[in-house]
């Protein structure tokens, strides 16, 4: 059997990217495919969606093994490459993972992730408050609560457990009083405090489901509240969604700054732009004099921002009314003028990717 380009491509179609659910030929990942009959050697470049793709070794090994099974091939040389931003968006951002029936109905203009290194710094509150502020500006807003291990978004909005419905097109998000669309694992549980032990792959699977099977409709902004600590959920978001960038939330505690720096490195490795650093619980304004007291210690936000190559965009004070309204499911009543610079950043048109 003479080995030609068509045969090589057919064989490489057996190699499936498990996250995207499509083969590497159809995904346009195979470039410069050549066969040298003298040396019986195949060479090609595998263009990854992101340089840090954790599946790269697996994809290379599967491609190599598939080709070596063909009689007449003795060697396979794979060079790793990275797709251009435009190609990456075409592959990941076009809703590849969305079933065709949803692809035409869901139009999501931008996705922004809210990330912290450490839990408890107020990431979910910030996500909810940003959603509320965007909604007040007339935006159509969705919140994908990917913090599956501690999903507090529904509680902040007063949405009851078991509040998700579906139809034959997909899962319908819960709608808050002001019209924000919310999807969260907590909305799928029979009771708000039901204990769930989520293993890593299940978390990734659920995020994929929230992206691929939810009937979001038309959204200006989808905010993704990411769980602290692990890289897999962020990686899933980066690979599946048209992510514009991330907002980094930290607090003055040294440990929070230390851990958030790990998140900075991860975002850098995945080429996710950081839109800004938000320091929450930054100070407590004295009710009598307004003088700021740094209750949790001096700020480390500038160091975090320098590492991320961006600005400290917002410093949020400790506001006891925020806890009270959040606990009562009335976060939509909070007005935080301090969020204005972050709001402006999110509302600004996304910069065009470099050609
Ligand atoms: N600026 C603030 N002033 C007062 N209380 C706040 C502030 N920010 C957050 N809180 C309160 O701190 C608690 C933790 O906040 P939140 O759940 O948003 O944190 P988180 O980082 O998302 O935590 P986790 O990662 O554990 O979900 C909540 O009770 C919230 O109301």
From TrEMBL:
CDD domains in alphabetical order: Mrp_NBP35
Keywords per UniProt: ATP-binding, Hydrolase, Iron, Iron-sulfur, Metal-binding, Nucleotide-binding
Matches recorded under SUPFAM superfamilies: Fe-S cluster assembly (FSCA) domain-like, P-loop containing nucleoside triphosphate hydrolases
GO molecular function list: ATP binding
The MIP18 family-like domain, residue ranges: 9-79
Residues the entry annotates as binding ATP: 117-124
Pfam families: FeS_assembly_P, ParA
Domain of life per record: Bacteria
InterPro entries the UniProt entry points to: FSCA_dom_sf, MIP18-like, Mrp/NBP35_ATP-bd, NUBPL-like, P-loop_NTPase, YlxH/NBP35
Function summary: Binds and transfers iron-sulfur (Fe-S) clusters to target apoproteins. Can hydrolyze ATP.
Family per record: Belongs to the Mrp/NBP35 ATP-binding proteins family.
Assembly information from the UniProt record: Homodimer.
HAMAP family, alphabetized: Mrp_NBP35
Name the UniProt record assigns to this protein: Iron-sulfur cluster carrier protein
Annotated source species: Thermanaerothrix solaris
């Amino acid at each position: 059997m003479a080995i030609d380009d068509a045969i090589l491509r057919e064989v490489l179609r057996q190699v499936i990217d498990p996250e995207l659910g499509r083969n590497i030929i159809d995904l346009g990942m195979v470039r410069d495919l050549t066969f040298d009959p003298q040396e019986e050697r195949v060479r090609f470049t595998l263009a990854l969606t992101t340089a840090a793709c954790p599946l790269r070794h697996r994809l290379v090994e599967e491609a190599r093994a598939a080709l070596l099974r063909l009689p007449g091939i003795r060697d396979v040389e794979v060079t790793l490459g990275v797709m251009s931003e435009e190609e990456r968006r075409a592959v990941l951002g076009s809703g590849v993972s969305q079933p065709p029936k949803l692809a035409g109905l869901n139009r999501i203009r931008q996705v922004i992730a809210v990330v912290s290194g450490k839990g408890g710094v107020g990431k979910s509150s910030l996500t909810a408050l940003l959603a509320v502020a965007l909604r007040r500006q007339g935006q159509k807003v969705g919140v994908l609560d990917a913090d599956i291990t501690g999903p507090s978004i529904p509680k902040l909005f007063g949405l009851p457990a078991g509040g998700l419905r579906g139809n034959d097109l997909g899962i319908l998000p819960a709608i808050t009083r002001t019209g924000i669309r919310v999807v969260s694992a907590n909305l799928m549980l029979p009771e708000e405090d039901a204990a769930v032990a989520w293993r890593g792959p299940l978390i990734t699977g659920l995020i994929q489901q929230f992206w691929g099977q939810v009937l979001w409709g038309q959204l200006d902004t989808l905010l993704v509240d990411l769980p602290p600590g692990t890289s897999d959920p962020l990686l899933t978001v980066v690979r599946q969604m048209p992510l514009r960038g991330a907002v980094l939330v930290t607090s003055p505690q040294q440990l929070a700054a230390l851990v958030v720096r790990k998140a900075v490195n991860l975002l850098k490795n995945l080429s996710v732009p950081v839109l800004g650093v938000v320091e929450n619980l930054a100070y407590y304004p004295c009710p009598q004099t307004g003088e700021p007291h740094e209750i949790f210690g001096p700020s480390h936000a500038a160091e975090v921002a320098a590492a991320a190559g961006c600005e400290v965009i917002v410093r949020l004070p400790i506001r006891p009314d925020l806890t009270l309204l959040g606990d009562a499911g009335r976060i939509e009543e909070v007005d935080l003028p301090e969020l204005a610079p972050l709001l402006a950043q999110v509302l600004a048109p996304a910069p065009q990717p470099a050609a």
